[in-house]
TrEMBL record:
Pfam families per UniProt: Hepar_II_III_C (PF07940)
InterPro entries per the UniProt record, alphabetical: Chondroitin_lyas, Hepar_II_III_C
First-listed, main subcellular location of the protein, grouped into a coarse class: other
Subcellular compartments: Cell envelope
Coiled-coil stretches: none
Lineage of origin: Bacteria, Pseudomonadati, Pseudomonadota, Alphaproteobacteria, Hyphomicrobiales
Native organism: Neorhizobium phenanthreniclasticum
Protein name, entry field: Heparinase II/III family protein
Domain (Heparinase II/III-like C-terminal): residue spans on this chain: 310-554
Length: 560
């Protein structure tokens, strides 16, 4: 590791240590002052929750089986908060109480009493000391939103004693979020925390000045994190949907109660919708870049039905650094950017110049996506360049994933500059050319990718080129390069000849991938972003060896 990278890693580690100390001291200060905590006597409103409901989950929970984070925990009558949990992801989902929404599918007196008992258990076992996974910022913010949104479930038929304990715990958690707000790095968690505090300010009795103050703080965070093109600074397409799911109910709650809305709230939501549509493929799912995983169709549709800006998606998101080529039901989405900071790179992927392609009602070429609930090794593999539909040199990622003891896995070095050109040729075909410097330091080569979509939307041409900077000669000997094209699991591959492969969708939509003069290999693959979890898939691979072969051409055309 170079000295400059060591210094950046050390600097980031120091900032993270300070943040941890800040959060710990916030918990201590809150515990000291908890006796003077002002506890509201009631809730004014329960904001809507737009997330998908599942009656099966509700039935399982009533039988003391918890299907969360890809695992099932059977408690045999014990509280799930008092026993060992199967994974960290499971613990986060359990302590977030996001599963409360499923209880609404069978909102009987018995189910509400069951949910109330679990809330009571949590308060008794974890509610008095801000410590552990239950009090991590993302979990605590989600829990506050869930308790507010589903208070009608928890409080239906509640006795006065439980009502007071519930309100006291809720006020305590809101106070904790308020104290740690300045201790968090930039990113989705910090924005969700501000959403939770704004939601609490209007859901519980509060002075107008307090509601206005939380609205101003939310405005500031929206301005920092939502870019001018509507994308989120994480560059994760799924983050846009996740945030809209919380921002839309917050907007409606302000309106329903007659409060003045934060000035940035409505303009920001209106700006985010075109970005969300930009990443939507022909099958209705979102593109898999920078941490995006599977998207339940019901959640996406529940958000899109409030879209008042509906129109044709933009050709590019210049601040988020993505391009979209789309004609006659064929869509290409290309990543032409890199992580904006070390803090934001903790969930970023090394997928610069990767692309996804969909046609008809199906995705054909994808990235592997991010696993929702998987081991650290799987998550690391999913972030590598090889898990993206782009070129990899010597099985090395274009940006290195470095694990810091305090900061976690962040991206260092690699891609720092991306040059992009976009034009229409004389026939009306749409062309994109982009290059990045991610491999210059280690291998001495730039990677340039050119993609063109014809005016009929039935032919795609691709050109990948590795070239040296003008002022330098070769710095390395021959090495292995591979252009990967990850295929969606729903697509069936069949070989035509050594140079071409047929890709067939379940409804018969067919595309032919060809690389004249080159061997196109079909290899086993893993798709991380399926709704059902990690599943096997296939990939097309073109291997070549610079400097002997430094460029390849490939094409896709719709079959008969």
């Amino acid at each position: 590791m170079r000295l400059a990278d060591r210094r950046r890693l050390f600097s980031y580690g120091i900032r993270e240590i300070w943040r941890r100390l800040c959060r710990r001291s916030a918990g201590i200060r809150l515990a000291v002052t908890s006796s003077a905590l002002q506890v509201p006597d009631r809730l004014i409103v329960a904001p809507t929750d737009l997330r998908a409901l599942d009656s099966f989950v509700a039935e399982e929970i009533l039988e003391d089986r918890f299907p969360l984070a890809g695992r099932i925990l059977e408690t045999f009558g014990e509280s799930p908060f008092s026993i060992e949990l199967p994974s960290r992801a499971f613990a986060e989902r359990l302590h977030s109480f996001a599963w409360l929404r499923h209880i609404r599918t069978n909102k009987t007196e018995a189910t509400c009493a069951h949910a109330r008992q679990m809330v009571s258990d949590w308060i008794a076992l974890h509610g008095r000391r801000p410590k552990g996974i239950a009090w991590e910022a993302n979990v605590a913010a989600e829990r506050v939103i869930a308790w507010l949104s589903h208070s009608t479930v928890v409080l239906q038929g509640a006795e006065a004693g439980f009502y007071r304990r519930f309100m006291r715990s809720l006020a305590y958690q809101v106070g904790y979020l308020r104290k740690i707000a300045g201790c968090l790095p930039e990113g989705e968690t910090r924005l969700r925390l501000r959403i939770a505090l704004a939601m609490a300010s209007v859901s519980m009795p509060a002075r107008a000045a307090h509601i206005r103050r939380e609205g101003i703080r939310l405005d500031r965070e929206l301005e920092r994190q939502i870019m001018a093109d509507g994308g989120h600074i994480s560059r994760n397409p799924r983050a846009v949907l996740n945030l809209l799911i919380d921002l839309l109910p917050l907007r409606q709650t302000y309106i329903n109660l007659g409060h003045d809305l934060p000035q940035k709230l409505i303009p920001t939501i209106d700006r985010m919708y075109p970005a969300l549509r930009f990443f939507r493929h022909q099958d209705g799912d979102l593109a898999l870049f920078n941490g995006a995983s599977s998207t339940p169709a019901s959640e996406l549709m529940s958000v899109l039905r409030y879209d008042e800006t509906a129109g044709k998606p933009f050709k590019a998101l210049p601040h988020m650094n993505y391009h979209r080529l789309s004609v006659e039901g064929t869509t290409l989405i290309v990543d032409t950017g890199h992580s904006l900071s070390a803090e934001l790179s903790r969930s970023a992927h090394a997928g610069c110049l990767s692309f996804e392609m969909s046609a008809g009602r199906h995705r054909f070429i994808v990235n592997c996506g991010a696993p929702k609930y998987a081991s650290r090794s799987y998550r690391q593999v999913a972030r590598s360049t090889a898990a993206h539909s782009t070129v990899t040199l010597n099985e090395t990622s274009s940006s290195r994933i470095v694990r810091s003891r305090f900061a976690g896995p962040i991206l260092l070095g690699g891609v720092s500059e991306v040059e992009v050109e976009r034009w229409d040729d004389m026939h009306g075909n749409d062309w994109l050319r982009a290059r990045h410097n991610g491999y210059v330091r280690e291998f001495g080569y730039f990677h340039e990718r050119e993609i063109g979509l014809n005016v009929k939307g039935d032919k795609i041409k691709g050109h990948d080129r590795l070239f040296l900077p003008e002022d330098k000669g070769p710095e390395t000997g021959p090495f292995a390069a591979a252009a990967r094209f990850h295929i969606h699991p729903a697509i069936v591959l069949s070989r035509r000849d050594e140079e071409s492969v047929v890709m067939r969708a379940p409804d018969g939509e067919t595309w032919i991938f060809a690389a004249p003069g080159l061997d196109v290999l079909i290899e086993e693959d893993i798709f991380f972003a399926d709704v059902s979890g990690v599943r096997p898939s296939q990939q097309l691979v073109i291997e070549f060896s610079p400097p002997e072969t430094s460029e390849i051409r490939w094409m896709l055309r719709r079959g008969d």
